[in-house]
Amino acid sequence: MIKTFVIAEAGINHNGKLSIAKKLVNKAKQVGANAIKFQIYIAQDLATKKAKKVSYQKKNDKNKNMLEMLKKNKLLFNDFKKLKKHCDSKKIEFISSAFDEKSLKFLKSLKPNYYKIPSGEITNYPIIKLISKFNKKILLSTGMSNFNEIEKTINLMNKFGISKKKIILLQCNSSYPTNIYNANLNVLKTFKKEFNVKVGYSDHTEDLNAPAIAVALGAEYIEKHFTLNKSMKGPDHFFSLTPSEFRKMIINIRKTEKILGS
Fold it and tell me: Among 43, 33, 26, 32, which residue's Cα sits nearest to residue 9?
């Protein structure tokens, strides 16, 4: 029986506070997640003052532009050093996306076992090249990308030394939240056939059943947004799962594994 690897996507739901980030780690471990994921970035290298927030971000965030929002919700490199140690002490896997080369090189110093390439960076080939040289497992999210882009990125990873055994291709829809009619989980079977890699699902629906369905279709990794409270201020809280909801999702996944058998 394959045991699904479940990732609590904390992202920036710590609101820029290490104390909240540590609480997210504690709750993720408590409800049964295998890993918790964050985002490391340098705000001014990721957005300008002219970058506008997208519609879902405006719903629960009062910052006037993308740059202000990113600055308010970031943790410092030193915070992540403490957070990685906290994850190690709680025996939960620490994972992060990094959106620029400086952040990525810092992330490498934390010695994670996985690197996450978010949907928006699948064609960021300098980042792809650098991550590939680390020779670790890579979670590759596919929101907004087409098959040609996915194929090119996988081929680049192979060229720079990453075997297909270390690539996990995640089906993802980059709308927040995603309507269930756009989840398109059947593509998981196509991914496995076309690219010969492990597959998973980075879920942005508000549905608790979609991840279990993905497991039934061959997903070995599940990622879902995670918050302490949906009413907290910040762009991603409202569509994230609370600890009790996340626990229900994991129970559904574990039941599905038993039903599928060996």
Answer: 33
